[in-house]
Amino acid sequence: MRTPFLNSLLEAMPKPLIKKSHPVHHKDKSKGSPLDKYRCEIMALRHQCQCSYGEIALWLQHKKNITISKKSVYKRIQYWNEAPHDVFKSKETAD
Prior knowledge:
Elements: H1 4-12, H2 39-47, H3 53-63, H4 70-82, H5 85-94
């Protein structure tokens, strides 16, 4: 129940600016990692060029404008090594 004082206080307050805003959504897990589109290049750097995870993270930052930790690079490479290959083929053909 609003009192007259509360009503006058609410009316005196400035109205919020309404912009075209979108509700905050967490990243959909089905979209995958931003690294997924560079999978072949990252795997080549790791296995053929023997680059460290830190070097790959620096490469991503300088060449692809992606800031990511070396631990995240490590986790994604481990995920790719453990996941069945048909998972990636279905995503690549969808793009």
